[in-house]
Structures are given as C-alpha cells and as structure tokens.
Design brief:
- There is one protein chain.
- The protein is of the alpha/beta class.
- It folds into two domains: 334 residues, TIM Barrel (Alpha-Beta Barrel), CATH 3.20.20.150; 57 residues, no CATH class.
- Helix content is 47%, strand content 10%.
- It is built from 16 helices and eleven strands.
- Strands 2-3-4-6-8 form a five-stranded parallel β-sheet.
- α12 runs antiparallel to α16.
- The longest helix is centred in the C-terminal third of the chain and has 30 residues.
- The protein is globular.
- The two termini are 22 Å apart.
Length: 402
C-alpha cells in the first residue's frame, strides 16, 4: 500500500479570487506568473509535487490567432517559458492540462457538442493549442471537463448527432498527440451531472466510461472523478464511482474536495464543510485496497469566508489555502492507511463476507452444471446475521479516535 501519495495543486485553485454567482471575487487577482510562484514555493516546502492548468489559466486565447503558441518570439511563448522555469525552480512537474471551453461566450451552448459546426471548429483548434501547451510544459495528461456540453431544453438538442460530435472531438486528441509526437500519454473525462448547464451529456462515471469504450483509442482514455463533489451533487455515491472506475481500470488520477450531498457544487477543501469525513476516508481506504498507483489532485477553492481583500492577503492567503488542503488531505490519507491495515477490522470483514474459494471459483467460471449441483444449506445461510452495524461502529470509533 502507498502510505503517502504525490499531490497536485492546479493553477485554477490557487488563482481563484473566490467569487460566486452572488458576488465578485474577494481576493485580489494574481497573474499566471504569480500563481506559478505560489505553487513553486509550495513545492519548495515539500507540500506538493505536481500542478495542472487550463490553457487560459496560463495564457490568453485569441481565436483569431489559434497558433500563437508556435511563435517563439511572441508573448504567449515567452510567458510559457517563464512559467516553466518558475515551476522547475520549485521542483514542480506540470502533470495535466485542459482546454477551457467554458469562460468564452462563444461556447455558451457547448464546445465539443455545439450544434454550430463553426463553434466546434473553434473548440477543436483550442483543444489542439492546449495539447501543444501541455506538451511544452512536459505534461502527461489531457482532461476533458464537460464544461458547457449540456442543455436546458430538450427540444433544442440534435440528439441524433450530439454524442457523435463529442466522440469525434475526443478521437481528435490521441490522433493529434500521435501526429505531433506530444508528451501526453493519456486523456481523461471529468464528468459532472449539471452546472454550469442545467443538464450534462456525460453526467456520471458510467456515462463517461461508456463513451470511452466507443472511442477509437479507448486505452488512451480514463476518468478523473471529482470527489466528493460531482457525484454527491445528485445524491450518487462518490465511493461507488471511484470503486467502479478502479474495477474498470480507468481511474488515472483523482480530483478531491468536499461536498454536502444534494447541493450545488460546493467545491470545499477536503474534509471541510457539513459532510464528507467518512466518505473521503473510505475512498482512500479503497485506493489502498486496490493498491492504486495514481496521484491526487486538488480541485476545490477557498471558503469565501476565509478570503479577504487587500494587497497583503493576495499571496499570503493563497499560500495558507494550499497548506490547509494538504494538511486536510494528509489527515484523511493517514486515517485510511491505518484502517486498511487494521487487523480487527480485517477479522470482522472475514466473518461478514464468508468467502469460499471453491464456490467462488465455480461461480466465476460460470459452470452451469456445477452451479446447479451445489447443495447450499439455505436455512443456515438465511439465519446468519452479518453484524455490519457492529463493523461500522468500529470504523467510526477508529476514525474519530486521535
């Protein structure tokens, strides 16, 4: 089991001015270079190892100049070089990048799924530019967050074409990476049930993995669930989502934060907020049981209450936010590690599961004749209590103990 995983803190988390639909940002803004400095300093302190960004977190997008990043004498290339040098100074590896297909108003009815072919062409150009930027920074992953690929009204959607639009756009990613010999090894889909659109075309982990299986290069693709937020928003289980992705060998990395079930996307830091302590610990417990080799990336933002205006707070509070996220994550990770190696819990699980290797082998093989011939003592089975409540109380005691 991995005792301590490597952590990534993205640009969009650090640079967030902590705005919401009801109020503008509380924190004074920072530039991309200043954000890189904050992340690099966190790396020097040993808090984090990786970072990630949307293309627009790093450099501005000019749709009239979609290849500005290729001009070695231009401002875009100059700024990317500066960011790369700053991150290197802190020992930070740029791990993942994404194309932001949500802030510009041209994508208000979707990017990859937009029924207007002109908008889809702009989105494709922006994705290819983002792939080149990721490659320049040495990134290994490209993430497609569903962004505005969704709808509010059913009759406005060309349902017979929409998923083929998304499929074609996703197929473009490994094709372009191969043609240009880019550093990107894998792509991921970050699904979400709603927000910013009323409904999304890929709302769950099942939708995302089903889409992946229909792509030209399914082995290139995986998922990066955002837990606890995205599944919990509609009262689905982030624990089951992670376990399912693991079972399908499609969990490439994990975004973490905290969420009160059934609400808007809270995007709270790990363990913070009304709910989520037990759920997050259990997810890390499952990762240990699977001996998962991936890494953890924060995807949340500072409490608006913890932000404050003013020049003195602009950098300081962002640095404190990184420390808070890492401290909270390490607390849950350490507890999950202890639970995974706890002998008392293991002994109770043996009694609850009652595994029989011979029966398991017959059932797994699907030998219908042998299954039919099995003589199972129904009375003995039906009268055995599982004591799951007793197990769960034991787990709670161990989580709450210090």
């Amino acid at each position: 089991m991995i005792k301590e995983r490597k952590l990534s803190m993205p640009f969009w988390c650090v640079g967030n001015p902590v705005a919401d639909p009801f109020g503008s940002g509380v924190l004074a803004k920072v530039t991309a270079l200043e954000t890189a400095e904050i992340i690099a300093n966190a790396g020097k302190k040993g808090l984090i190892h990786y970072t990630a960004a949307h293309d627009c977190d790093l450099v501005k997008w000019n749709p009239e100049n979609p290849e500005d990043d290729l001009d070695t004498a231009g401002d875009t290339c100059r700024q990317l070089k500066e960011i790369k040098a700053i991150l290197k100074s802190g020992g930070i590896q740029f791990k993942m990048g994404s194309a932001a297909l949500h802030p510009d108003p041209v994508f208000r009815n979707g990017g990859l799924s937009n029924p207007d072919s002109r908008v889809r062409a702009l989105a494709a150009q922006k994705v290819m530019r983002a792939l080149r930027i990721i490659n320049f920074l040495g990134g290994e992953y490209f993430t497609y967050w569903v962004a505005r690929d969704g709808f509010e009204t059913q009759f406005s959607v060309p349902w017979d074409k929409t998923y083929s639009y998304i499929r074609s756009a996703l197929n473009l990613v490994p094709k372009y990476c191969s043609e240009k010999k880019l550093s990107i090894k894998h792509g991921t889909i970050e699904y979400k049930p709603n927000e910013p659109r009323g409904e999304m075309y890929l709302p769950t982990v099942g939708h995302a993995i089903a889409m992946i299986m229909s792509l030209d290069k399914p082995d290139f693709w995986g998922v990066n669930p955002e837990v606890l937020q995205h599944d919990s928003m509609t009262n689905l289980s982030p624990v089951a989502a992670v376990a399912f992705a693991l079972s399908m060998n499609k969990l490439l990395f994990l975004h973490v934060g905290s969420q009160k079930a059934g609400q808007f996307d809270n995007d709270n830091p790990p363990l913070l907020g009304m709910d989520g302590l037990k759920e997050l610990v259990s997810i890390f417990y499952i990762l240990n049981k699977y001996d998962w080799k991936g890494y953890i990336e924060f995807d949340n933002h500072m409490f608006r209450t913890d932000a404050a205006p003013g020049e003195k707070n602009r950098i300081k509070l962002r640095e404190k936010y990184i420390e808070l996220c890492v401290d909270a994550y390490r607390l849950a990770e350490a507890k999950a590690f202890k639970l995974a190696s706890d002998k008392t819990i293991a002994s109770k699980l043996v009694k609850i599961w009652k595994e029989d290797k011979n029966l398991d082998a017959i059932l797994a093989k699907g030998d219908t004749a042998k299954i039919q011939s099995l003589a199972i003592n129904y009375k003995a089975v039906v009268e055995e209590a599982s004591a799951i409540g007793e197990l769960d109380l034991l787990v709670n005691k161990k989580i709450l103990s210090t």
